[in-house]
Amino acid sequence: MENFDPTKGESFYIQLIFDEMEGNISQHETEQLIVWRKQDPANEKTYREMVENADNLELLKIYRQLDTEISITSLHQKLRAGQNIDKPENRKNLSLVYLRWVGAAAVLFLFIFSSIYIFQQQDRVVLSSTHTETARFTLPDGSKIVLNANSSIAYSKRSFHRSRAVKLLNGECFLAIVHNPNKPFSISYGNISVRDIGTSFNFGIDGEQLKVSVRSGIISIHENRSEISKAILKAGETATYQTKTGHMHRDSIRDLNYMAYVDHHLVFNNASLNEVAKSLELAYHRKIRILGSLTLKRHFTAEFKDRSLSDVLSVICVALNLEFLEKAGIIYLQEKRKQVRTNGS
After folding, report:
1. Is the distance from CB of 212 to CB of 238 less than 8 angstroms?
2. Residue 12: per-residue pLDDT
3. Residue 224 near residue 246 (C-beta atoms within 8 A)
4. Which of 188, 212, 249, 296 is geometrically suited to a Cys-Cys bond with 193, CB 3.0 to 4.6 A?
5. Where along the chain do its domains lie?
6. How far apart are CA 345 and CA 343, in angstroms?
7. Burial of 146: CB neighbours in 10 Å, binned 0-12, 13-18, 19+
8. Are 321 and 298 in contact (CB under 8 A)?
9. Which residues of the chain have pLDDT under 70?
């Protein structure tokens, strides 16, 4: 496969991961790293664990001072200069010293990496929502965040005021950022980071699609922590990034209810009943099913602002001559049953 060198060991790619985290990685090396990650799910797991747990720059610098490959090469050269390695007994001695040094370096690396992990576990703040409800938080800089159901983010308690960096772990969130031109805010997932240029926007992952939609202001989208913007979006625009292929498509926001889970502001303009039900499911995190084929042909126009699901369903039912009932946690919409009249009534 292009850019993948099977002769390179895991340590080579771990080095590339650290290079990427420090911003000292070339385009060719970035491509090599991407291909390596796609080779094996275990590689991708290693990458994510290192990125999520290696924000401690002090420990990272310690690792940088222990360049094992350069040190091994230097040791090898010194031993070659001091011995005639063509002799079998000297080759044996050289191998023993070499192996002992590599073993010691490996143990030291594991110690440092485990130290990073333990430190990060204590330093890391994770904000999460439940599987059925949204959650609202205020970040240390005053920025507001609403997590959609079954979503979570993380940031470093120690370095947030300096970096204002947040990571999306899963799901979707809406952010209203306190703008600070001297300390730009960023949120990332995998290879993509979104940087605030004074804005509020929605950011979420769904399978292999990462979607960003801007409500106000401007954002810039960056790939692989590059300083070169991949795209700049303004209010009313959205972009979808394919995490596997790296392809990105931008468009104007067409789904008026993309952030209804945040404020329950819903707009329906001659929407089919299927479309209405889907929007309500996403906004209120309830399962809604439509019974009967005739109801699928009906369309609905209305606007709701911060209304309960029961209120919205009542209005829909009156407008479309329907009724709703709940059974086993599922809401069913169906044709309104006719009242049976008795004699004399």
Report:
1. yes
2. 78
3. no
4. 188
5. 10-122, 129-252, 260-335
6. 5
7. buried
8. no
9. 1-9, 22-24, 52-122, 225, 294-296, 338-345
Question: Quick one: pLDDT at residue 203?
Answer: 92
Where is 173: in which H helix or E strand?
strand 172-176
Q: Per DSSP, what are the bridge partners of residue 137?
A: 145
| CB contact set of 293 (below 8 Å; sequence gap of 6+) | none
**pLDDT for residue 61:** 47
**Could you tell me if 87 and 79 are in contact, meaning their C-beta atoms sit under 8 angstroms apart?**
no
Dihedral over Cα of 178, 181, 187, 192: its sign: positive
Residue 6: the pLDDT is 54
Closest Cα partner for 53 from 135, 110, 116?
A: 116
| Number of neighbouring beta carbons within 10 Å of residue 159 | 14
Q: Which tokens is 287 given?
A: 């399962």
Identify any residues that bridge with 212 across adjacent strands, giving them in sequence order: 203, 239
Name the pairing type of β-strands 165-170 and 186-189: parallel
pTM over 0.85? The answer is no
CA 84 to chain centre: 55
Classify 129 as helix, strand or coil.
coil
At the topology level, CATH places domain 129-252 in Jelly Rolls (2.60.120)
Q: Which residues contact 156 (CB under 8 A, 6 or more apart)?
A: 55, 120, 123, 124, 125, 163, 165
Tell me if 194 sits within 8 A of 184, measured CB to CB. no
Helix (H) or strand (E) holding 322: strand 322-327
Residue 73 CB partners (closer than 8 Å, separation 6+): none
Q: Does 260-335 carry CATH code 3.55.50.30?
A: yes
CB distance 321 to 297 below 8 Å:
no
Question: In this predicted structure, what is the pLDDT of residue 314?
Answer: 94
| Amino acid of residue 79 | L
Same fold, 129-252 and 260-335: no
